[in-house]
């Protein structure tokens, strides 16, 4: 019977072993993580620096033979710092909770406690996955927002001195829209993103629009989409056929009915909204991972998550199972991010 927390002094419950365990666990699938949108960039420091270059193109004036050659202007460069974030959560395991774990030998007792700890880790891991998805969702909109849904952690528009693009009105509730109006609006999105992306937008770059429920329903019901055989063919090929939380290709944009949390607010983009971002654009989205704040990991390359157990050394009555992560999903080209509304 487990009546003491001395068991946590065994190697099986060491920081390194627990960290290896939690990083081997399969995470709960999340849309943005599964897209492979963010380039993983482990770092050894808590601050990263992003270089900004104001590149420009210009016409070359003609000149007479033998005259001085026109000198190219040097690109202006600067660097801005970005601080990685700290996500941490703990679950307390008390001696009383382990009191009734019965086993024949110490090895079996250790195994039972390990199962209890793994259950606690998986629960916290799920919360970490949800939080990471929320941060990634913020990055594809250019603004990271904290768990309360209102506190701005970082605005990449402010960081890089970029003015956020005006929201596009797609006028989806218009019963008699002008012929080709929706396709014209789509071309506007494509042109604006390509111009803003400059060298980051490549021939293989895809534009994705994450749609709220009401926006998606109104979009697929629009006369131009309903009557478009290619849109239907793409939807059927994907096994979607305009279903809830499905996707459709129209106007050179992939429109996705994004499913956030079921409460429609904890992780969401707004039911009447659409958010556009580039997929497969060079260096636009990155995910920095900083090392943990312990001596064990000083100046090491950051891991996705860390886990440890902190016993009660005074009374030996409990132990805290802790999981930490030090990420920063960020967007280096917020000028490429666009947004729209239903009407």
Q: Span between N and C termini? A: 65 Å
The number of E-state strands comes to: 16
Helical residues, percent? 25-40%
Give the rounded overall mean pLDDT: 84
The arrangement of helices and strands along the chain is HHEEEEHHEEHEHEHHHEEEEEEEE
What best-fitting shape do the alpha-carbon axes yield? flat
Tally of alpha and pi helices: 9
Please summarize the sheet with the most strands: 6 strands, mixed
SS-derived structural category = alpha+beta
| Radius of gyration, taken over Cα atoms and rounded to an integer in Å | 26 Å
If strands are numbered along the chain, what order do they take across the biggest sheet? 7-16-11-8-10-9
Structural account:
The chain is an alpha+beta fold and 343 residues long. It has a domain at 174-285 and 332-341. The protein has nine helices and 16 strands. It has helices at 15-24, 31-34, 95-98, 106-139, 156-160, 181-197, 213-220, 223-226, 229-237, and strands at residues 39-42, 47-54, 76-83, 87-94, 143-145, 152-155, 168-169, 206-211, 247-250, 253-257, 273-279, 285-289, 306-311, 318-325, 327-331, 338-341. It has a six-stranded mixed sheet with strand order 7-16-11-8-10-9. Strands 1-12-15 form a three-stranded mixed sheet. The chain has a three-stranded antiparallel sheet with strand order 4-14-13. It is flat, with a radius of gyration of 26 Å. Mean pLDDT is 84; it is low at 1-5 and 25-29.
């Amino acid at each position: 019977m487990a009546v003491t927390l001395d068991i946590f002094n065994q190697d099986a419950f060491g920081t390194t072993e627990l960290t290896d365990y939690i990083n081997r666990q399969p995470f709960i699938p999340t849309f943005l993580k599964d897209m492979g949108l963010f380039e993983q960039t482990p770092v050894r420091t808590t601050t990263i620096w992003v270089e900004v270059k104001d590149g420009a193109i210009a016409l070359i004036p003609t000149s007479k033979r033998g005259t001085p050659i026109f000198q190219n202007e040097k690109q202006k460069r600067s660097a801005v710092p970005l601080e990685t974030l700290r996500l941490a959560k703990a679950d307390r395991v008390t001696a009383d909770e382990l009191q009734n774990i019965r086993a024949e030998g110490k090895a079996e007792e250790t195994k039972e406690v390990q199962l209890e700890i793994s259950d606690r880790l998986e629960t916290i891991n799920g919360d970490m996955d949800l939080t990471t998805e929320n941060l990634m969702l913020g990055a594809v909109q250019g603004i990271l927002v904290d768990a309360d849904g209102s506190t701005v952690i970082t605005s990449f528009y402010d960081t890089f001195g970029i003015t956020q693009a005006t929201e596009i009105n797609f006028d989806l509730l218009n019963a008699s829209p002008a012929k080709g109006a929706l396709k014209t609006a789509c071309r506007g999105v494509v042109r604006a993103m390509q111009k803003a992306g400059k060298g980051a937008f490549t021939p293989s770059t895809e534009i994705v629009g994450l749609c709220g429920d009401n926006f998606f329903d109104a979009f697929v019901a629009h006369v131009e989409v309903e009557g478009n055989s290619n849109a239907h063919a793409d939807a059927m090929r994907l096994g979607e056929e305009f279903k809830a939380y499905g996707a459709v290709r129209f106007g050179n944009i992939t429109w996705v009915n994004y499913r956030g949390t079921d409460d429609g607010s904890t992780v969401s983009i707004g039911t009447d909204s659409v958010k556009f971002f580039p997929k497969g654009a060079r260096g636009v989205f990155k995910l920095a991972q900083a090392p943990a704040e312990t001596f064990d990991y000083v100046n090491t390359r950051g891991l996705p998550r860390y886990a440890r157990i902190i016993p009660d050394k005074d009374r030996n009555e409990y132990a805290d199972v802790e999981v930490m992560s030090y990420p920063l999903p960020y967007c280096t080209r917020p000028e490429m991010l666009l947004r729209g509304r239903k009407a």
